[in-house]
Write a structure and sequence with these properties.
heterodimer, A: mainly beta, four-stranded antiparallel sheet, 49% strand, globular, B: mainly beta, 11 strands
């Protein structure tokens, strides 16, 4: 299986900060990567798919980039609603789906 | 609109078999390109993909649990069922069903609210 890592595991930030989360795959997954936001007690919510495509209805302050084995999720100006845990997920068609361990964004 | 909802027992005993049902609306698993997955999340831990079933009845399972899982569908009821045998306390988790975006790649565009399953004697 393809292993996914995320860094940092926890990120403390303030409203208005620019935030970047990194996700790495153990082998190349081209651009087959999605990002989700999860709040406590809730299901994950799709933010980004195919590395950089913004899901309908997701604020434009979220953006994704990368290809191959290294990807980033950027929040350009952190808002109060953005404090949550973020997961990356790879979906290379030749390998089972796997998720990263998550990055918790909390209030500084 | 698309909705999914998980149902099943909240508590199971070790060694028992767990059966979970995902009831969905807003799409049909008879439609080409439609796929539904199960994903779980132990308390405070990360997401783990478990299984997938496709419109053509193709089935796929995660590597670590494949010997214990069976996924099936009842298209007349708009349901997907997951069974997991030989339950253990480490299987305590919230279990989600989710739709895979049709023809978009294997990512999840709609999720159920999840159902917490506790394994304890």
């Amino acid at each position: 299986d393809i292993q996914m890592t995320q860094s940092p595991s926890t990120l403390s930030a303030s409203v208005g900060d620019r935030v970047t989360i990194t996700c790495r795959a153990s082998q190349s997954i081209s651009r087959w990567l999605a990002w989700y936001q999860q709040k406590p007690g809730k299901a994950p919510k799709l933010l980004i798919y195919t590395a950089s495509n913004l899901e309908n209805g997701v604020p434009s302050r979220f953006s994704g980039s990368g290809s191959g084995t290294e990807f980033t999720l950027t929040i350009s100006s952190l808002q109060p609603d953005d404090f949550a845990t973020y997961y990356c997920q790879q979906y290379n068609s030749y390998s089972p789906i796997t998720f990263g361990p998550g990055t918790k964004v909390d209030i500084k | 609109q698309v909705t999914l909802k998980e149902s099943g027992p909240a508590l199971v005993k070790p060694t028992q078999t767990l059966t979970l049902t995902c009831t969905f609306s807003g799409f049909s698993l008879n439609t080409s390109g439609m796929r539904v997955s199960w994903i779980r999340q132990p308390p405070g831990k990360a997401l783990e993909w478990l299984a997938r079933i496709d419109w053509d009845d193709d089935k796929f399972y995660g590597t670590s649990l494949k010997t214990r899982l069976t996924i099936s569908k009842d298209t007349s009821k708009n349901q997907v069922v997951l069974t997991m045998t030989n339950m253990d306390p480490v299987d305590t988790a919230t279990y989600y069903c989710a739709r895979i975006r049709p023809y978009g790649g294997y990512y999840f565009d709609y999720w159920g609210q999840g159902t917490l399953v506790t394994v304890s004697s």
